[in-house]
Amino acid sequence: MAFGVLSFYPTHSLVIYWVFIRSTRKVLRYSHRLYLDYGRRSKSCKRLPIEWVCINLMAFSFPVEYFTSVLIILATYPVARHSSTLNLNLPGLPFTLDLSLYYFIMLAVSLPYFLGALVYVWRKRDKLAYLAAKDAAKAKRQKQKV
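Predicted structure:
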């Protein structure tokens, strides 16, 4: 969504924060995927809570990234509206097509994706809390048997 903004207003101060937040979230997501793909969940979950850290940081960084991109788009819209590259002159018609409205269409389209991804991450976060409680109860039962 915000990649359409960078060509019109790359000097906005929020762009740097957005790139940093997005890069951090991508690193967290890829490290979580590596952690799961190498099967480390069952072996090192008690020693290193990598999955818990990644999921919790992603759950909080995703809304920050989305709202930062919305702010960038709202700040860029006046600049993009007056750009000649977003005004399409149609031959034979007496009007021009303003493509800067595309930003608001993309905001409307991105909202369901954002909500769906946020719900997915928060469910994964709740599942991790459930698994941790289940493991703690299992360890407590085993300790009582001994």
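Summary: The mean pLDDT is 79.
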